[in-house]
Each structure stands twice: as structure tokens, then as C-alpha cells.
Amino acid sequence: MKKTIVIIILLMIGATSFAQQTKEVPPITFRGKLTFERKMNVYKQMDEMMKGNGGNSAMADNFKKQIPKYKTDVFELFFTDKQSLYKPAPDGISESKMMMGNIPAERNIVYNDYEAMKCVAEKKVFEKTYLVSDSIKQFQWKITEEFRKIAGFNCRRAETIIMDSVYVVAFYTDAILAEGGPEGFNGLPGMILGVVMPRMNLTYFATRIDNYLPTEKEITAPVKGEKVTYATMDIKLHDSMKQWGDFVQRILWYVNI
Predict the structure, then answer these.
(1) What is the pTM of this model?
(2) Which of 51, 70, 90, 240 is the most exposed place for a label (fewest CB within 10 A)?
(3) Better-predicted residue by pLDDT, 24 or 8
(4) Least confident of 35-39, 174-178, 213-217, 234-238
(5) For 91-103, how does the pLDDT look when each residue is reduced to its tens digit (9 = 90+)?
(6) What is the CATH number of the domain that holds 85?
(7) Whole-number mean pLDDT of the chain?
């Protein structure tokens, strides 16, 4: 009898512990909406512009005193296990305080079809809008043993190099089984909730998730702009901005993420 009572008590303790653990772990999700905060270090961005174009660093230092160090914008990612749409949130793009205005392709809209492995992206580069239709980008990720919590989810760190020289750190969670992430990032065993690109002075971190089924209207490929592939767009930009010198490469980084 005593042995039976002890077993029952142990089972009750185990059940309570499991329930507590379950409360702390977000449920596995296949669909919903993620809100991302994109943050740019404006001071560092200005330094890169000046360095690449022989500008007046003293003028840049004086200008920094008049503006915030960071520019923060908000994006939304609507997703299912088959497709996703990443776009600026309503009133999500803050006013640029930079000397040269907005960064290129700062209002990207990216649609991914993971069954067909196709991507359609609307990218505005200064006064020109391109509609990029191409294969979904492929990344060679290296998964590490480092973890951090983002928007309530335990995330694992992965790393890769894009465009030959841009180091990228991503954090993904296997609690959201749908593919994808901010901009065109994908290819990890779970949703990417954080991206850090030190050379581009950019970070993307999820701040919240809404668990519901997006409507067909909420996940629709963009249609505006001159139709190109990533390769043909790069050629057009190189040809039209030769006078920009080394800074053309930095523009291409922003356009191709």
C-alpha cells in the first residue's frame, strides 16, 4: 500500500513538472505572422559612405551630432509551411536622417514559394523599382552550439558568408517549423528570428508572433517594377552607377539580401 502511494505521488510530481515545462515552451507553429525590427547603425553607415567616396569625415562627425545613432524600421512576415511574404509594416519605415537619404532597397517586399522554390521580390533602388523573379536563394549554413532567446523562443545560432565577403549570423527556432526569415534568408531547420550583419551595420530581430492563418491576400507576390533576375539587376546597377566607385558594391549588398 505504501509503495502504491509513493508511486502515485511521484507520478503527480512528474505531471506537474511536465505541465510547468510545457507552459514555458511556445507551442510548435506552422503558420502566422512575425513582426521584425530592423535596426541600422547610422553612424557606422555614414563612416562607410565617406570612406568609400573620399568624403569629408569632419562634416560627417558634425552631422552625427544632429541625428540618432540608430534607424529602426518594422517589418511583417506572413507565413505558412508552403509560402511567406515579408514586407514593411504599415508606417513601419522611419524617416531617414542620413546625409545621402534612404539606403537602397530599404522597403523590400519578398515573396517565397517553398514548394516551387521560387522567389518574387520588389526592390526600389533610389528612383528605380525592380521586380526580381528568380529561384529562392541558397545559403551554406554552419550550425553552432550557441543559443539565445528571441521573442520568447529558444533559438540556435548559425553562420554563413554571402556575396563572397559579408558575414551573417542567424538565430532560428525549431518551434516554428515553417521555413523562412527576414528578407530572403531561409534554409535552416526552423524559422529564422534573428539576423546580424556586422559589415552592413544591420540587425533584424523578431519582437512578436501572432499565431493565425494568413489570408490569400496577405501572402501575395508583388507585381510592381521592371522584371529582372538577380543577375540582370546587378548588371543594370553596375552600368548605371559606375561613377559611384567602390560604393557600388555596398549598394549591391543591400539590394541582394
Answers:
(1) 0.84
(2) 90
(3) 24
(4) 213-217
(5) 999 877 555 567 7
(6) 2.50.20
(7) 84
Q: Which of 115, 94, 112 is nearest to 103 (CA)?
A: 94
Task: Please report whether residue 22 resides in a domain.
Answer: no
3-class DSSP state for residue 31?
A: coil
Q: Are 178 and 219 in contact (CB under 8 A)?
A: no
- 72 part of a folded domain: yes
Q: Is 250 among the domain residues? A: yes
In a domain, 60, yes or no: yes
Q: Are 195 and 185 in contact (CB under 8 A)?
A: yes
CA distance 137 to 135: 6
Strands in 118-125's sheet, in edge-to-edge order, are 142-150, 153-162, 166-173, 191-197, 202-210, 32-41, 70-79, 83-88, 109-113, 118-125, 128-135, 226-228
CB 92 within 8 A of CB 75: yes
How many structural domains does the chain have? 1
Spatial distance between the Cα atoms of 169 and 194, rounded to a whole number of angstroms: 8
Residue 23's pLDDT band, with cuts at 50, 70 and 90, is very low
Q: Can you give the pLDDT at residue 186?
A: 96
Q: What is the residue range of 151's domain? A: 32-256
